[in-house]
Amino acid sequence: MTTETRSPTLTRAGSGEARWFLGALTETLLTHESTGGALSILQVTEPPGAEAPLHVHHHDDETFVVLDGAVTFEVGGETIPAAAGDVAFGPRAVPHRYAVGPGGCRMLFILTPGGRFDEMIRAMSVPARTRTLPPPPDGPPDVAHIAAVARAHGCDLLEG
Dihedral sign, CA of 54, 72, 112, 37? Predict the structure, then answer.
């Protein structure tokens, strides 16, 4: 992680690094490098019915800002239904997951401090050919690989 002097940063709409990550489109709006390690912000577009498995971040807090659609969060065993305009917080060391509603959703993920999560996205994804959802996968995900990469970036999958 970087801890350097911060300077003003602007990411223009449609110019963040776009990657296909586990069935979603992620666009990195602010990197930990550009914020001196303070935070990372990603815009994530999820398809209808997508689910993040129960997992825990050991080094960063995760804030979710729902921009479009609906998503149900489970944080520390509490179920939190959310819609456009709502914000949910997942503190580090507290297990959480989410399930996307039938219309899909678009969210901001804000990670504080920045670094581990955006690096994990890069390690588990491929550059997006277009700023759309990725094509369907050829087969099931390699859960062992996903868990190993997550663990290397300070995150543990609690179910797979």
Answer: positive
Q: What is the pLDDT along the chain (160 residues), one digit of tens a residue?
A: 445 567 888 888 888 999 999 999 999 999 888 888 899 999 999 999 999 999 999 999 999 999 999 999 999 989 999 999 999 999 999 999 999 999 999 999 999 998 888 899 999 999 999 999 999 888 888 889 989 999 999 999 887 5
Smallest CA-to-CA distance from 60 within 5, 109, 128, 10 is with 109
DSSP-assigned states of every residue in 18-75: EEEETTEEEEEEE-TTTTTTS-EEEEEEE-TT-EEEEEEESS-EEEEEEEEEEEEEEE
The encoded tokens of residue 42 equal 């990603």
- Answer for the pair 149, 54: CB distance below 8 angstroms, yes or no: no
The pTM score is 0.90
Residue 139, Ramachandran bin (φ over 0: left; ψ between -120 and 50: alpha; else beta): beta
Q: What counts of helices (H) and strands (E) characterise the chain?
A: 2, 10
